[in-house]
Amino acid sequence: MAIAGRERLSDRAAPTYIPPMFGEFLKRLTQPDPPALNEIDARLALAALLVRVARSDGDYAALEAAHIDRILSVRYGLSPFEAPRLRAEAELLEQEAPDTVRFTRAIKDAVPYENREAVIEALWSVVLADGVRDHEEDAMLRLLANLLGVNDRDSNLARQRVELGQA
C-alpha cells in the first residue's frame, strides 16, 4: 500500500524476464572464488546494493530511486538518461541476486579500501533519502559496513556527514 503522496516502487509487479547477461554475472558472482569485477560490473553491483538497501525496509519509494539515480550520476558521470537505465538494470539484478555477502565481496574486491567510505556514505544517503531511518536499514548498514571492512566508527561518521549534507 502506498503512503499518501509517495509512490512505492515495491507495489509494482516484479519483472519475469531476467536478461542473459545477468545470468552470466550472477554465475560469476556465485563462484567459490569469483574474479574481480570489471568497471561495468562493479557499477552494476554497487547499484544493485543501493537498491537492496532501499528495499530493506519493505518500502522502496520513488524518492529513493531518484536518489539512487543521483548517486550513480555523480559517482560515475552518467547522464540523466544513463543513471536511471543503470538503476533499472540493478533493480532486475537485485531481485535475482545472491546473498548480500557476495555482493559486498564483489564490491570490496572492486573498490580500493580508501574509497569504501564513500560507498558507505552513498548507502547511508539512500537510507536517509526518504526521511525515515528504521531498524531494518540500520541493521543492513551495520552488516554492509562490516562486510566492506569499514568499522562502526567510520560508518557512523559517514552517516553524520550525510545527515549534515557534507557528503
Tell me the helix content. Answer: 55-70%
What form results from the Cα inertia axes? globular
CATH class: Mainly Alpha
Instruction: Report the CATH superfamily.
Output: TerB-like
User: If you average the pLDDT, what whole number results?
Assistant: 81
- Structural category is mainly alpha
Topology as H/E string?
A: HHHHHHHH
What is the number of helices? 8
Distance between the first and last residues' Cα: 32 Å
If you had to describe this structure to a student in words, what would you say it looks like?
- This protein has 167 residues and is mostly helical.
- The chain has a single domain, classed as TerB-like.
- Helices cover 64% and strands 0% of the residues.
- α2 packs antiparallel against α3, α2 packs across α4 and α6 packs across α8.
- The longest helix has 17 residues.
- The radius of gyration is 15 Å and the shape is globular.
- The N terminus is likely disordered.
Keywords for this entry:
single chain; 64% helix; mainly alpha; 167 residues
Please render the helix and strand layout as text.
Blueprint lengths: L19 H10 L9 H17 L6 H15 L5 H15 L3 H11 L5 H14 L5 H13 L4 H12 L4
Summarize the structure.
With 167 residues, the protein is mostly helical.
